[in-house]
Amino acid sequence: MEWDWTFVAKIMPSLLRGAVVTIEATILGSALAMIVGLGFAILRRSPNKLISKPIGFFVDFIRGTPLLVQLYFLFYILPDVGIVLAPLVAGVIGLGLHYGTYTAEVYRAGIDNVPRGQWEAAKATNLTIGQTWRHVIIPQAIPPMMPALANYFVAMFKETPLLAAITVLELMNQARSAANFSYRYLEPMTLVGAFFLIISIPSVILLRWLERRFGKVE
Amino acid sequence: MDQWSGYLALIFSGALVTIQLTIYGCALALFMAFVAGLGRLSAHAPLRWLATAYIEFFRGTSIFVQLFWAYFVLPLLGVPLSPFQAGILALGLNVGAYGAEVVRGAIQSIPKEQYEATTALNLTRWQRMRHVILPQAFVLMLPTFGNNAIELLKGTAVVSLISLSDMTFQAQVVRAQTGSTAVPFLTILVLYFLIASVFSSGIRGLEHRLARGLEGTRS
Q1: Which residues of chain B have pLDDT under 50?
Q2: Which of A90, A137, B40, B159 is the most buried (most CB within 10 A)?
Q3: Å from A172 to nearest chain B CA?
Q4: Is the CB of A69 less than 8 angstroms away from the CB of B189?
């Protein structure tokens, strides 16, 4: 099968519309994952076992099951109990929740990485709990987390094609409908691959820079 | 209640396909991880470039796109693949690229003294890898390999979209036939979690076993 540039030109506008949705979903999903992850991380540290244990299990459960099935769950089951979500909203919630369990681990590692002496020093200078977090722990914990968080956002970006399965008209779905409409798979599929490479190669370079700038936390 | 046993059998047959895909995919991924990981450390520049290109390409695009490409585009280029073969190929190559970086990182983290000691003992390059470096590096790789195996298991759900009858696909079939959504999807969520738990405890056991006798060498 020959590569056909006129066909490429024809499908390009719809692919670009899809690309915008892909990027929107990534940004919204990342924002949600950052917030949800912080929630998970804090609740998991709770001294109350009735809170920390179920949250720990929930996090492990989400990490151990496929995002695709979770998306189906949000999109098909929640309407049964009366919650109807738009496809994109369900997709963003799915992405945010799934990756929130990963970012929770990053937050945990980042917080654990702050030396104990810092906590003791905060206590010695008579800071309150709130002041300790705000002025001592968080400012030191955040920078080393940056590369790891960015890493998961790149990973999330690459998982957004799954949203096609719950009828979000993102890039992959636009490509599939173009392909199904004209029975040409070569150009749409290859262009989608190229689009992902175009975004993810610069982001890998950005990641390396973040790692050099802020150091790495494991 | 009677009909549910039939639907459950359908989901279990899907679970079998999922497990098969995971095992074959892991085997291919492990092979690719070592080939590409050692390739990146090769003394020959072209081999290094080839390995880097493979790793960056498969890490840079999503599994979903790779799977569709393998299933829809490769046949046009004269390589017809069954959905099962396309699934194993895409999953194995994708996770293998992530594994390659693990292999490279683990080998590079072996202290220089170990290399110097093998030189002092006059071991060949092959003997050094086989008897000194890899046994120590492999233990370091295992935890991440375990995570990668679970990522691969989760990735298998995507093959349902190229009409391979894995667990997720069968759940969709049950959903279409019964109109019940909660039961099939909750069942497969639990099954995925159980399979993942078996995998991770298996890897932990293996790690424990292989780490014996290495206590002194690990800092």
Answers
A1: 219
A2: B159
A3: 8
A4: yes
**Letter for the amino acid at A143?**
P
Is A163 a domain residue? yes
Domain-wise residue ranges, chain B: 2-217
d(CA A136, CA A122): 7
CB contact under 8 Å between B61 and A66, yes or no, is no
Q: Tell me: the pLDDT tens digits for A8-49?
A: 888 898 899 999 999 999 999 999 999 999 899 888 888 888
* Interface residue ranges in chain A relative to chain B, Cβ cutoff 8 Å: 1, 61, 63-70, 72-73, 76-77, 80, 158-162, 164-165, 172, 176, 179, 185-186, 189-190, 192-193, 196-197, 200-201, 204
pLDDT in tens, A117-140: 999 999 999 999 889 988 998 888
CATH number listed for the domain at residues B2-217: 1.10.3720.10
Quote the pLDDT of residue A87: 92
Instruction: Give me the pLDDT at residue B34, please.
Output: 95
Structure token digits, residue A52? 């920390």
Is A43 domain-assigned?
yes
Task: Give residue for tokens 């490429």.
Answer: A8
Confidence band for A218, pLDDT divided at 50, 70 and 90? very low
CATH code for the domain in which residue A101 is found: 1.10.3720.10
